[in-house]
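Kindly draft a polypeptide, keeping tokens residue-aligned:

***
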Amino acid sequence: MQPDLNAQQRQSDILDVARANALRTTLSQPASLRAGDPLPHLFHQIYFWEPVAADGLGRDGHPKVGGLIPDMGLPRRMWASGRLAFHSPLLVGQEAVRHTTCESALRKTGRSGRLAFVTLRHEIHQSERHCLTEWQELVYREDPKPGDPVRVPPVARVDEEVSEEVTFSSTVLFRYSALTFNGHRIHYDLDYARDVEGYKGLVVHGPLLAQLLLDFAERALGQVTGFQFRATAPLMHFETASLCRTGQDLWVRGPGGRQCMVAQVS
């Protein structure tokens, strides 16, 4: 299926100081941002909400597909990967505008069954400055079926120069869902995550892992101009993981050495 390349979305939002500081608190960082400060990288995820009434939601809590995102006929959605180019700082407390275009929508068949990949391009401007370009790839899957082969996750590297352990809780996942206005039930509804989508627990958000990896890198390398990440295996809320870095390469290593995410800064 080819997307409607004329389908675009324009949203404006004021980059609220209190919301940005709430995310810093959620990430165990000082809530010290003030109006006019540069917005930390990836914090734009907590803005440009798309509130939809209950009758406009799918079973998973996301808005029903069929508009900007075409209906690919598959029920399970995950954020597969992202790529970002940081052109100019976004400033806290000021209005910004995001233009979104659906660049592609492709069906594939993999070892786990039918898949679909949808790529969105977001461009964010503020005060006539082009501040950020982001490509977001979503993957849609079939429901799990009895007897499906168990997917073997990739094995993470062990040659990191530096690493840092991170833990999660259902409260952290709930707060991040609330701040990003993400209604996806796999992050807060344990029964749904386990019984409908087949996970062992609540799923840690891909963008949350990406945020932690980018913060981890920038503490050592300073601010970056580009960032890309790809989710490779889910991480559950009760699991401890390691953020790892060697040079500009980053990854998340979960229990048993499984690779949950890979990333790179530039």
About this structure: The first helix runs from residue 17 to 26. The CA atoms of residues 22 and 31 lie 7 Å apart.
